[in-house]
Amino acid sequence: MKQPLHSATSTPTFRLFSIKMSLSIWAVVAAMGVSGGVLGQISITTLGTASTQNFDAIGNSATATLPTGFKIGTDWSSGITATTLAAGTSGTGILTGTSSGGIYNFANGVTTSSTDRAIGFLTTNSFTSPNSIILAINNNTGSTINKISRVC
């Protein structure tokens, strides 16, 4: 997981969250809160098989499309399926304490050339909480899924 970046100053107040993840389905959670009617979800067809997403394939665009099954927002119905900004950890486009709030395509390195990506959001006075990274999963295994593990 990318380590969260923090501002050394208190102005503007912001919170940053980014994620790279791997999901592991280990055994038999039908009550996961995801129904079969959700569109754009990840389909799990085999128990015990990891489903991974490192977000590196989204490219370097400020308006990158999120991978299938992912949204960012307060809930699935109003969630956004693309980033609104891009920033990196070095060079041109580096994330700073004066960066705008929004849904980010983060680069580990220079924004326009790094292939190591993560998604997240920066909360500021103009882009406020709550926000979440939402993943929709459809259980097509024919069995109950009892455990999903997030590995960052």
Strand-helix topology:
Blueprint: E1 15-19, E2 21-25, E3 42-44, E4 51-53, E5 70-73, E6 85-90, E7 102-110, E8 117-123, E9 132-135, E10 137-139, E11 148-151
Parallel strand pairs: 3-10, 6-7
Antiparallel strand pairs: 1-8, 2-4, 2-11, 5-9, 7-8
Q: Give the number of helices.
A: 0
Mean pLDDT: 77
Described by the principal axes of the CA atoms, the overall outline is: globular
User: End-to-end distance, in Å?
Assistant: 5 Å
How is the largest sheet built, in terms of strand order?
Answer: 1-8-7-6
Q: Strand portion, in percent?
A: 25-35%
The parts where pLDDT drops under 50 for at least 5 residues are 1-38
When the domains are counted, the total is 1
User: Which structural class do the helices and strands define?
Assistant: mainly beta
Radius of gyration: 16 Å
Spell the H/E element sequence. EEEEEEEEEEE
Q: Percent helix among the residues?
A: under 10%
Number of DSSP E strands = 11
**Biggest β-sheet, characterized?**
4 strands, mixed
What would the keywords be for this entry?
152 residues, mainly beta, four-stranded mixed β-sheet, three-stranded antiparallel β-sheet, 0% helix, 35% strand, disordered N terminus
